[in-house]
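Example 4.3 (complexes with small molecules)
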Amino acid sequence: MKKIQNYINGEFRDPISDDWLENYDPSTGEVYSKIPNSSMDDVELAYRSAEAAFESWSNTTLEKRSGILMKIASLIDEQLDRLAAAESKDNGKPLSLAISVDIPRASSNFRFFAHAITQFSTEAHESIGLNTMNFTLRQPLGVVGCISPWNLPLYLFTWKIAPALAAGNTVVAKPSEVTPMTAFLLGEICNEAGLPKGVLNIVHGMGPSTGHSIVSHPNIKAISFTGGTKTGEHIAKIAAPMFKKLSLELGGKNPNIIFADCNYDKMLAVTLKSSFANQGQICLCGSRIFVERPLYNKFKEDLVHKTKELKVGDPFDAKTNIGALVSKSHLEKVQSYIDLAKEEGGTILCGGNRVIVDGFEEGYYLEPTVIEVPNDLCRVNQEEIFGPVVTIMAFDTEEEVLKMANSVKYGLSATLWTENINRTMRISKKLEAGIVWVNTWLNRDLRTPFGGMKNSGVGREGGFEALKFFTEPKNICIRYD
Ligand code: NAD
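Answer. The structure with nicotinamide-adenine-dinucleotide bound is encoded below.
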């Protein structure tokens, strides 16, 4: 059986305790590899190698640093098919999605921050009349921790690592224990690209043990975390008394607001994606759909019709639209919300059942599900389900839909469909969300600030925001005569 190992000081190592976890293929429900159940000792080893590498890496010229990151990006591109196949097998997502989105974005992350660091500038403030000149240094923090989730494994892992490395930090990183494979393969790529030993260290294992050891390590200066809101809350409690810098990208329950004046065909096609892409396991999915009443019945009929046409099955089959959910426990959690919807008076308009796929009988497949909810405050409309499940409801006025859109504890993203520019501005300004997409969804420019309001997170990543997070500003004030 394939053994995934930790990547520490440029070498692949078994966990010190020789303790291993099982890694499942969600499409078959079978264990297909083992991963280290790393302890505090492994994290300490990773930390020490990162610390030893810091002095040299932080003093490496931008040209050289950037060149190595560009090389990593190119190698990811060259290994697109291999990495996409590994991602699909590990996560259950359609291979076509891993080929078109996950892996290209991982290489873009490295390429983007390789460029960004060469354009990153600091400020100078001359105190006129006082004969002093201030300028700001932006220095790397030291050893930083990056912890990522399972839904977009290599995509989100590299979204943190690339800016951290570009800014001159050295890194101890942990991918999700549910999807460790592509992070493991990234270690090989880093060696091939000539990344010096110890600059990036990847430890595998469970959140409450391995992840906790990273967060609570006294000398790891900052934590960039993407994952669930509850985990984020826990991490904040540990990191705050240690005064660590924290970036938290957490859960979402995003509204998709559809006005009757929208471009209907475009909206319907994109709404199908924003509802079910990656089995609905994207923090940005528009899982609460609000439709202006004159359009409601037509939309309901068309969405249900289109949803029923989606093909659920083998992630490696080119015709598959919906692959497997990531794990058995996650499938059960999503199913429990479908049961709850019925108890709360919701109507399952389509889907709702587990799918038994020929030849993959033990895989974690679920029909894409549309639920008509009686009110926006029911739990299925308030809590993050994170699966191929959307709710729909009608609304009458802007005020009403804004109130419903903002009624959740989350504030990650929102989508708005209207051709009216005045309404676009009125509503966008009032939506409690870090990102508002108008007449589009998941359109990403890596220069833009990315993150959430309310319980969806703290801080912003992306563009120079990420480089600011991974550096410490220091003002130097010089008096001259
Ligand atoms: P999770 O919080 O369970 O795990 C995320 C990572 O944190 C994993 O690597 C896990 O091992 C680790 N972890 C868990 N407990 C920990 C602890 N006590 N200390 C340190 N690390 C710990 O999340 P998940 O189930 O992997 O991912 C799904 C969640 O991620 C959803 O809520 C989704 O909305 C969110 N998400 C948010 C964004 C965003 O950009 N805002 C993007 C993707 C996913």
